[in-house]
Amino acid sequence: MALERTFSIIKPDATRRNLTGKIVAKLEEGGLRVVASRRIHMARRQAEAFYAVHKERPFFGELVDFMVSGPVVVQVLEGEDAIARNREIMGATDPKKAAPGTIRAEFAESIGENSVHGSDGPETAKEEIAYFFAGSDIVG
Ligand code: CMP
Fold first, then answer.
1. N or C end: fewer C-beta atoms under 10 angstroms in the chain?
2. Strand order, beta sheet including 72-80
3. Could you confirm whether 54 is annotated as catalytic?
4. Residue 114 in contact with ligand 1 by CB distance below 6 A
5. pTM value?
6. Residue 9 β-bridge partners
């Protein structure tokens, strides 16, 4: 096991329903520590660049429209195997397939409006953290 950092977003469907605290509680109860956090309203070009890897997907436009539809909370999470741990706590992308007790099983509205994002690997985690946070913003 290794102490890792991962990147997390609490998405607009969750901030709209005032679920930030409930989601952070699940992350913390799951063994992760919030070492940086900021509530922002993403600019369209920022969301497009963040999700550039998906730009050929049919849902890209819908995804960007949704991510700029309201405030989000961008966070850095730290813990043992934080990348995999966060993905376990979030549950599957499609809430219908998410395990009981996971964030997406409890809170997500659909595959698109699925309450949270989490990095899928070490390289992505590094890039996504650097996209939103300077090293000095992260206090472990
Ligand atoms: P996320 O982990 O933020 O990474 C890419 C996002 O694309 C994903 O979560 C979903 O919210 C979204 N997504 C994936 N598949 C679909 C789909 N079929 N329709 C709409 N949005 C999707």
1. N
2. 33-40, 72-80, 3-10, 116-118
3. no
4. yes
5. 0.97
6. 74, 117
